[in-house]
Structure formats: structure tokens, C-alpha cells
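@channel anyone free to eyeball this complex?
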Amino acid sequence: MAKRSAPEVNAGSMADIAFLLLIFFLVTTTIEKDSGINRKLPPMEEIEPPIIKQKNIFTVLLNGKDQLLVEDELMEIEDLRVAAVEFLDNNGDKTCDYCQGKKDPSSSDNPDKAIISLKNERETSYAAYISVQNELVAAYNVLRNRRALEIGPGRGFRDMNFVEMEKNYKDARFVGNKEKLKAVIDQIKLEFPQKLSEVQ
Amino acid sequence: MSKFKKKKDGGLPAISTASLPDIVFMLLFFFMVATVMRENSLKIQNSLPVANQVEKLDKKNPVSYIYMGKPSSGYEKFGSEARIQLNDQFASLSEVSTFVSSERAALREELIPFLTIALKVDREANMGIVGDVKQELRKVNALKINYTTGVGDVSSNMN
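replying in thread with the prediction:
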């Protein structure tokens, strides 16, 4: 028998396969978003700073060797979150009925008056600075989450902490009443306002 | 005699194109794997610190990026101290305000108050340069900032 050449493979459907893959990747690809810590800088205007009682200020100082000084005492970064929560939640003047703090008269009056002041030096490393910022934001989030779990169920948002609430609010696929959710978020933000000042 | 008829010489045989899609796929996969989406080419080192209390940077609002870090290899002539990069080039501190105004000029008027400045700062940089930039931003009233970070546990920042 004569030697037969190999039969031609039909490549016509290759284009279909390529399209199938292309469409699959088009649909499944998500371009990664940046994430970070949002901050608002104080405006430049030279207004007379309001007089704040020393006990309402929680000073955090990060020196050039990345050592942490909290309320004039050396502290490790792991303990900062707890200390900040304790300070914010203190409720010294007993006007805050949702606080669970110690009501220590020598610490902050209420969460609305409590201010965290973060100071750094020029030689402080950025990584340390971000770690401290992160812990302070975490302290606020701890309190806000606690509050969200308290008032959430009564407003129709069961088992949802503050961070999840904010995430859901931004999520276009969230099924639920967004206006109600916004009201809850705003209320919590008002009850535990983030008063964090960054001093040069 | 047909038996000894010479084989017809039809010129060159056709090249099979069946493997062409394979080559294209190979290229497709190579670029799919190797592509990194990035807006500016960086001339500085930029490994971001990590944090776990992060919020997503809302792309609905306009975002401008300011990079800071030590000049990367190949740009050592710019020194070993952290520097500012705006768009594609090194910039001095005084150029930050011009940069913000030019970014604002490119925006629709109603979006200008929502402009967020994302600071992408290398973890080894010092706060001195960051503080200076923050001060410049305050001067031009660009107060919404974002410290862009990776996501992770903060204890890995310290080494």
C-alpha cells in the first residue's frame, strides 16, 4: 500500500475555543483596587485652637527610633489598641449611656470629647507610623463594631458589625435597605467620632 | 506507461497552519501572566507597608497618586534619601502644589472637592518627607488623603 500522509486536522473550531477563553477571562478578571487608611488633614487657617482639657487628649508619640510613648509612658505597639479603647470608652462625665468604660474622672469625658493626638518625629519610619495609625483606627473600629452589634438587630441588620455595614453600603450587590443602613452608620459615626489629630 | 508515471511536482507543499493558534495562545498566556497594570513607571522603591483596618479606595472619586521612596537601582545618582515622584519623574517638594493644581484643572468642577491624594510611600521612608508633603497639601487645601497600604498584619511591618 502507498504511504498515506497524515490527515489534516480541522482547525476551524480553534477560533471558538479562543473566544471562549477570552470571554471567560473578560468576565472573571477583576482589576485590583488600592486600599489604605483614609485621613483628613486639618485646614491651614489660623484659627484660635479651642481649649481642650488635658484629660481629654490621648497623646501618642512615636520617636525617631520608632519607640512608642503613650501618655508619657513607654508602650509596645501590641498594647496600644486596648489602651486607646479604654481611653475612648471611659465616659468620665457619665453622659454617654452606650459606653462601658471605667468612668474614671481623670480620663476622657465622653467619646465626643476624646481626642487622640499622634505626634511623630522626622526620623520616624513610615512603616511604624502606619502600624500606629492602623492600631488607632482599629480602636475606633472595635467600639463602632460593638455599637453596631447592639443597635443593628433593632434596626433590621442582624449580625453585622460596623466594618461589614460600611462594606455592604458600598457594595452594589447588597440586598437590603441602603437608606436605613446609612442612617445606622451615620449614627454610629456620630456616637464614636474619629477625632484623630496628626501633629507635625 | 502509467505505472511509471512520475509523481506530479506541485511546487512547495502547503504549510500546515494548525499550530498557529498554539503560538497565539502561548503569547496570550505569556502576556496574561506577565502583565502588571500600573499607571506610572516607578523610579523609586515602593514596597508599601501593610495594615488591616483598611478601606477600599473609592474609584468613583478622582484619585491622584504621590509616590515617595528611595531611588531604585539605576537611579542612584539621585541620592539614597527618599524622594518624591509625581507622574513619571522625580519632583521637589515645591512641585507638589503645582501637581495638585494641574490635577484639579483636569477635573470637572463638581468633582474637585472629592479629589483624594493617595500617598504611596515606601515602608523604609522616614516621616520627615511625608510630613513635608502633608504640609504642602494643606497649603493648597487638598485635605483628603489616603495612606495606601497592602493588606496584612502590622507586625510584619517591623522587619
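from a first look: Chain A has a mean pLDDT of 81.
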